[in-house]
Amino acid sequence: xxRITTWKPEDQxxxxxxxxxxxxxxxxxxxxxxxIAFIVWQIWSVxxxxxxxxGFSFSQDQLFTLAALPGLVGATLRFVxxxxxxxxxGRNWTVISTLxxxxxxxxxxxxxxxxxxxxxxxxxxxxxxxxxxxxFCSSSSNISFFFPKKEKGTALGINGxxxxxxxxxxxxxxxxxxxxxxxxxFFGDGQLMKNGKEVFLQNAAFIWVIPILxxxxxxxxxxxxxxxxKQPIAQQFSVFKLKHxxxxxxxxxGTFGSFIGYSAAFPLLLKSQFPEHVSLAFWGAFLAAAxxxxxxxxxxKFGGARVTxxxxxxxxxxxxxxxxxxxxxxxxxxxxxxxxxxxxxxIGSGSTFQMIPHIFPANKAASxxxxxxxxxxxxxxxxxxxxxxxxxxxxxxxxxxxxxIGFYVVCFALNWYYYERKGAExxxxxxxxxxxx
Length: 437
Known about the structure:
There is one protein chain. 76% of the residues lie in helices and 1% in strands. By secondary structure, it is mostly helical. It has one domain: Up-down Bundle (Growth Hormone, Chain: A). The longest helix has 31 residues, at 243-273. The protein is globular. The relative contact order is 0.15.
């Protein structure tokens, strides 16, 4: 593939004749690479549910910790991954960051076959899954350089939305693949559950080894390193001085942080409250991921701030309704309430990301996208931990939801004051130069 030496997506002639086809090809390959990263990142959200059924003896708090730790590590790594594209190039870093996912995938496959595997080893493997959590920042940062400003919201929505779909994929595929003996001649014997049913929990990790290898090869041969991407670290760190970087970080914590945090916690939450319905856990992440491109598109069409305002109102309603139906122990009301929360979080993830390229100039927007995504990923750790704390302390997860509602009110107020109200500092995103001050 010929090396790209010039990149001018805002030049309409360049975009129509050459830019668009390169951008779309890179988006088409980047997206499944991001999806496999999310799959590995969230493997523990479903593996943790099955551990005690096959002979492990971890406490409820330990299980929530295993589901949460990849979020903590992944969020922290996002700060590193944000700058990786500017150092190594988009194609190069996509190959590297995909290949390292082999480490936790192979390690988990062997560890779950032995019920004597210590909790500390499981914690290490859960932490290594955080390698997948970092990829979102590098992927989004890279894709943001490929598209003109008017198409960034949709492109980032597609990349992020379908990439996020990896959470629902792993939550849907795992219960199916662990019942299959197809991989057993190569990867060990099955485990007997307490109900007498045989499962092959190692399949939940081993099944992704071949896709990881194939996607890394596709990235190596099909993606590009853009010349405009290379930026000194000091220049990228300059976004820490920008007020609106921190405001948008809070908003994205409220949207994407909720999506990824609820996705990590939902299977265990269902098992603790409505164990007979735990097989439906994948629907939350699926609907949220599917809604993310819609949020980007709505942001492009109606304005990201306006969409985000509605999102935080809806999330507060969904969380309040979920509290009511948990207290009533009514699954028929709880599921649609929580799915509403997921959908709103997904739409908000797209609409808030759409806002960033309109607030910041191109040379800062990519770094801001990475920074906000890094902080938001901590939701994958704190939300499961808060549910675990609430359940352990009060015997119910509803106390955690009260904290989340309070945070959504703060997010609503920030978005309305700075971006949505009449006379707002950056209303309708026409004062981009002012955002850099």
